[in-house]
Design brief:
Layout lengths: L5 E6 L5 H13 L4 E6 L11
Parallel strand pairs: 1-2
């Protein structure tokens, strides 16, 4: 049986490359099977925050 764990992390527009790296490293250390990282403003079109 596969007990996959994944997560989505939303970072502020002020996030630096090291912040993204640290996010992926933390996910790996926590044995996440998948992680998605979004940095606010990194795409031309994105969902609006509520």
């Amino acid at each position: 049986m596969d007990e996959a764990v994944s997560t989505t992390v939303n970072l502020p527009a002020t996030a630096r490359a090291i912040d993204v790296y640290d996010t992926y490293l933390s996910a790996w250390e926590l044995a996440c099977k998948g992680v998605t990282v979004y940095v606010d403003g990194s795409r031309q079109v994105q969902p609006k925050a509520l």
